[in-house]
From TrEMBL:
Entry annotation: catalytic residues: 80, 112, 234
GO biological process, one term: acetyl-CoA metabolic process
Tree of life domain: Bacteria
Keyword line: Transferase
Organism of derivation: Poseidonocella sedimentorum
Residue ranges constituting the Hydroxymethylglutaryl-coenzyme A synthase C-terminal domain according to the UniProt record: 246-318
This protein's name: Hydroxymethylglutaryl-CoA synthase
Family designation: Belongs to the thiolase-like superfamily. HMG-CoA synthase family.
Positions with a binding annotation for (3S)-3-hydroxy-3-methylglutaryl-CoA: 30, 144, 243, 273
Length: 387
């Protein structure tokens, strides 16, 4: 059987953040509730001229620069914070990156889960057409109401992945365990800018879905728990991943070893929730930050999207994978950021797109080359400032 999986992956995060101690101070909360109780330190904040498109293009650009665009004939864009009810965000990215015109392009949505079916579809496709590659992008801005309990779990990031035959990073195992249940734990009606969420219920359903997906994974002939070297979880906040890891070890009747999951949480603590990108950010964090060479080792991957759909699957890290990581770039993206105070955060949070078609020229703030330069007559104008 042809091996398929992730040939290359990279992420992007905006260059501004608010430290959770500022939120804690503002709300008169003990900062340890955030740093220890939910396990988060910073929330990434997109600038006025950044959104899911600009972050996606920034995440994908290093992959195209290093591995070229030949054979990419499909773009799958996973998001739950789409900018248009009709047009796929991937079409803007396709132009910004100069991808071949003979290409299909579609947006997928199911809360934080949608990048996982994108990858499964892409693996099936490249197994049928091994000379082709699929660009899968997960990009989201996680925004909750001000002063709500979800507020410290905001964030923003994009992850881009090239899916191919004979991948250089992670081979995706065809065995998977899935679970769907119709629940209202977190949702966002079309007329709302922020989601409605039953936070504690959502955490319980996440843990239940993990066990259901794991059981299905086992029933389908998946790896034994002991065969998995590292675990990556969907991370709305890092404590959720710790709880999930404990819960899974208990279900598998084994001692928990937190070192198997902690490397995946390093980037998330500094970025916050990135919805569809989150579990893939955990995968990059694990590959970038594990002291041990993971070549040949199995990674357990748990993807969850409220509403709810969950999937447990596994990938095997390809020996020599370290030559294909963007670790230095990723670390610099996180380290070289600017802290904003509460007032700066409010300004970014409150910025809304004009709803009447009037022109808005956006300030040149993004650190990357791709910017949302203006919105006019209900059209978004993206530019490549390096072109
Ligand atoms: P909350 O009510 O503010 O927090 O909401 P809490 O009172 O439950 O406290 C949180 C933890 O901090 C607790 O620990 C406290 O004990 C501890 P736990 O009981 O969980 O072990 N704590 C402290 N620790 C140290 N020092 C202190 C202190 N004080 C308290 N001084 C909640 C927390 C996560 C519910 C909220 O932030 C929220 O609603 N977030 C959004 C929803 C969410 O992230 N749900 C996760 C599962 S659903 C999911 O992952 C899908 C999602 O990504 C969306 C999608 O799929 O699209 C969200």
């Amino acid at each position: 059987m042809i091996k398929t999986g992730i040939d290359a992956m990279s992420f992007y995060v905006p260059h501004r953040y608010i430290g959770l101690e500022s939120l804690a101070e503002r709300h008169g909360i003990d900062p340890e509730k955030f740093s220890k109780g939910i396990g988060q330190e910073k929330i990434a904040l997109p600038g006025h001229d950044e959104d899911i498109v600009t972050m996606a293009a920034e995440a994908a650009k290093p992959l195209i620069d290093k591995y070229g665009a030949d054979g990419i004939d499909t773009v799958l864009f996973a998001t739950e914070t789409g900018i248009d009810q009709s047009k796929s965000a991937g079409i803007y990215v396709h132009r910004l990156l100069g991808l071949p015109a003979n290409c299909r392009n579609v947006e997928l949505k199911q809360a934080c889960y949608s990048a996982t079916p994108a990858i499964q579809l892409a693996c099936g496709y490249v197994a049928r057409k091994p000379d082709r590659r699929v660009l899968v992008i997960a990009s989201d801005v996680a925004r909750y109401e001000l002063d709500s309990s979800g507020e410290p779990t905001q964030g923003a990031a994009a992850v881009a992945m090239l899916i191919s035959a004979d991948p250089r990073l992670v081979e995706i195992d065809p065995v998977s365990g899935c679970f769907t249940e119709d629940i209202m734990d977190f949702w966002r009606p079309n007329y709302r800018r922020t989601p409605l969420v039953d936070g504690k219920y959502s955490a319980l359903r996440y843990l239940n879905a993990l066990i259901e997906a794991w059981r299905d994974y086992q029933a389908n002939g998946g790896l034994d728990y002991s065969e998995i070297a590292r675990f990556c979880y969907h991370l709305p906040f890092s404590r959720m991943g710790e709880k999930a890891h404990r819960h899974l070890a208990k279900a598998a009747k084994t001692q928990v070893n937190m070192d198997q999951a902690l490397p995946g949480m390093i980037y998330n603590r500094q970025i916050g929730n990135s919805y569809a990108a989150s579990m893939y950010l955990a995968l990059i964090s694990t590959l970038d930050n594990s002291d041990m060479d993971l070549g040949g080792k199995a990674m357990g991957l748990f993807s969850y999207g409220s509403g709810a759909v969950a999937e447990f699957f596994a990938g095997r890290v390809v020996p020599g994978y370290r030559d294909h990581l963007f670790t230095e770039r990723h670390r610099a993206l996180i380290d070289e950021r600017e802290q904003v105070d509460y007032e700066g955060y409010l300004k970014l949070w409150q910025a809304v797109d004009p709803g009447d078609g009037s022109e808005r020229i956006l300030p040149d703030e993004a650190r990357g080359r791709y910017r949302l330069a203006s919105i006019n007559e209900h059209q978004r104008h993206y530019i490549d400032s390096a072109a």
